[in-house]
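Example 233, ligand protoporphyrin IX containing FE.
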Amino acid sequence: MTKHRVRTVERYTRRTRWYHAAVYITVLALLGTGWWLLTGREGQPSPAARLTGVADVTLHTYAGWVLTGLTAVAVTLGARAARTFMVESVRVDKGDLRWFIRWPVAVVTGRFSHHRGHFDPGQRVANLVLVTLLAALVASGVGLTMVVGGPGFVWLQRVHRWATYLITPVLAGHILIAAGLLPGYRGVARAMHLGGRLRIDTARRVWPGWLDRRLAEDDEDDQQPRPAGDSPD
Ligand code: HEM
Ligand code: HEM
């Protein structure tokens, strides 16, 4: 850990932060154009369509291919990170139930129950729901670009619509929490923005087990043998 005036700790690397930003800009564009189409305004161009001169369906499909590409990057180039993400999202430790029981009050007071994960137990559930629904949206969305009419189209459209209904409140919840708007989560937005460093007190409040491991890693790095000559061997 570098010595800053306010002690901070790196939570996510620049690569992860840029990947997350690319995903959310794309997903927000898909939600915007998707809801525009869903509410039956297909004939009426949205402000984005008027600005670009491209129809909403086309804008949506372009953004859909971008998200499909980003998904492909996650499972190929980002396979190791994706695996760690999944392993950390399915973990269950003793005490996680107590974390959930205390959560509704802790979002206001900041007094979360201890947990050991990289993600808190609530994030783990949200991650699994998000991955499942995004996978359903990408699969059914790609299907919709290939099938024209018939029962297949109707079925794909049903999956695509339901996944949209379900993912919208989950994403709204994620943004509310991750933007640090609730008092208990104040300061967490910096994990993914403006350098990816958290204040130590924020990290201790929200991710105590992760922080202990992270600080222990830094101590180990500090104790690495010095360059030739310095080491007793
Ligand atoms: C966050 C992800 C996504 C959301 C929230 C979303 C949402 C929606 C919604 C609400 C509709 C309108 C459905 C209706 O009118 O019944 C729609 C249509 C559609 N979506 Fe998506 N979508 C997403 C991702 C994708 C992806 C990855 C693709 C694939 C390239 C895609 C391709 C399409 C297509 C082809 C249509 C049909 C357009 C039409 O002909 O009416 N979507 N989407
Ligand atoms: C709309 C699409 C978005 C998707 C699909 C998405 C997805 C994710 C996922 C899967 C994570 C991993 C851990 C977690 O569940 O917290 C994450 C973390 C995070 N997201 Fe998002 N996100 C989106 C939008 C946003 C927005 C708009 C913000 C802005 C405030 C944001 C801020 C964060 C932050 C600060 C973290 C780090 C939390 C941590 O340190 O573990 N996200 N996001």
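Summary: The radius of gyration is 21 Å.
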